[in-house]
Fold:
Amino acid sequence: MKFDKFSCPVCGASLVLEGRTCKCGNGHCFDVARENYVNLNISQKSGEKIGDNKQMIEARRAFLQLGHYQPLADKLADLVGQYCPMGGTILDLGCGYGYYICHIAARHGDSYRYLAADISKEAIKIGGKLDTCIDFCVANSFDLPIPSGSIDVLICVFAPYATDEIYRVLKEDGVAVFVSPAPYHLWELKQAIYGDKAYPKSFSVDFEPLKSVQNLQLDYAFELNSHREIDSLLAMTPYLYTTPKKLLQRLEKIEKMQIRANFDITIVKKLTIRRKIL
Ligand SMILES: [Zn+2]
Structure:
């Protein structure tokens, strides 16, 4: 826990940790919370709840702890090893409670610095307690408290983002790794809910001005062995909130399911601007 890679959300100056307070040179102070995180989202009003709530995070955590998305966490750790230079800085943007960044930090240890940001204070509170070698902060993805040109590898798994802001925080030649659902992600769950009306959904995303360097798909099957496990997966998806209850009731009779995980992984780069020598 160093908190020396963030910038002041008020004035943009760098923050340094003194005791349990992050301070900038202009006198703005942000206390490190008991759960080892710092709240740098100044647009959030006191008492206002934004981002995932406690119940959503606990449901997600219950599912992720089953290990069904570990192949994705392993793949991300591989990619970080491939793209991040020794001593580089990694940011998990929209990290949730930090499942993926904790996995990456466990694999690579002292080789890198680890930062994790999410708009949900409830999620960050859990993360800060899990791993103190990761600097967790509450932040707005559209206005990051991160200095320009300071991140070597940014990962963004199923989270909202602003491409301009990612471009700004990346170093030249830095890369961003985006994970999104591929068309057949959770296909059997979709079929169980929507029957014949299920259709593969694909997303097209524009990462300009970042340049695509690699596109991968991760495709495997995992098994859910109880109704509780099926429920915890459902809580990870938008279906729980967007699908009529009548359709969701179709899942109640199912105790066992084999499900396809199908992720699109897009790796993009902030290319070095080659200046002409006159
Ligand atoms: Zn300041």
